[in-house]
Design goal:
Layout (H helix, E strand, L loop, with lengths): L16 H8 L8 E4 L26 H14 L3 E4 L11 H10 L3 E6 L9 H4 L3 E7 L5 H8 L5 H19 L4 E7 L8 H11 L3 E5 L20 H8 L7 E4 L1 H4 L18 E2 L4 E3 L10 H4 L2 E2 L5 H6 L1 H10 L6 H4 L7 H11 L20
Parallel strand pairs: 1-2, 2-3, 3-4, 4-5, 5-6, 6-7
Antiparallel strand pairs: 8-9, 9-10
Helix pairs in contact: 2-3, 7-8
Length: 370
Amino acid sequence: MTQQNLVLDGHKMMWHLDRVKAWLAGERIAPITIDCALTRRCNYNCVYCYSKLQEHDDHRMTQDVIFRFLDDAAEIGVRAISLVSDGESLCSPHVYDAILRGKANGLDMAMGTNGYLLKLDRLEEILPALTYLRFNISAGEADRYAEVMGCRKECFDRICTIISECVRIKREKNLPVTLGLQMVLMPQFRDQVIPLAKLGRELGADYTVIKHCSDDEFGHLGVDYSKYFELTELLKEAEGYSTDDYLVRAKWSKILSGGGRKYSRCYGAPFMPQFSGSGLVAPCGMLFNSRYAEKFHIGNIIDNSFKELWKSDRYWEVMDFIASDQFDARTDCACLCLQHKINEFLWDVKEGLIELKEPSGPPPDHINFI
């Protein structure tokens, strides 16, 4: 990993022009990245948790179901799986085997986690199989960590120990895995920005990224996006803790967006859909809620293989609907969704504002996590 090649605020679609061109030609493309969880359960209760707003039928995924999904994904041409969605995948007893199975299938594998349940004796096994391991840690001090993350104060010390052990193993074995920290920043957590930037450097992480908080379409989390503009100098100060070996980066394009969109259609979901830890297949996490079942739920990988669902007319009816003029992402969607940056890119492609040509220079790190 090099600092110059690490993209924390943007996208990597120009390095997947084969799939973009196939999509423009009307082909039914396989996703590049699938964002998913292995369970809906979580051992924390973060105050900014979006998944708590997305209640729907819960199911438990068995190892057979997970392996079938990973096999299907590799077969149809998916390039990467990120274990990041509406549950803490470490709550699944199958998470370690899933990482190894996906990697053996030729998929790039990554995970976002609060990290508390990571087994120290499995780290040497899974770290070589991961492209990145990102710790969701939205405070840099124990008291505030407990308050923000909805856990016991003692959890903070354990997380720091686990991160340090990951760093040790990476360095001793010269592993390419990227180890990062992520802060979900609500304006009222501003006092933790600098402590976390310092903590990441002290622990030896590769980066700390500071991102916005996504609210749902009804504003249930109460995020005041205008307040982010007051944090500009603070975030610049945090970025000043970067070194040659450690990067602190705010996701400026979303933090300073005001929560708005320039595009009205969702083109990004076929490239990067998001599946629930219940096995539910839907275009994105915003649409997991049961109230969207009739219009937007495609099926469940417990009941049908992912390959069957992907080939089904229902899958493409849903994807085509959210890309049509019957759907308006500016009014029908939650703020600053998973696919936001690739939606901006694909909108500009459709509008003729971007010329599709092979990119120059070295490819970015984590190229298949778009």
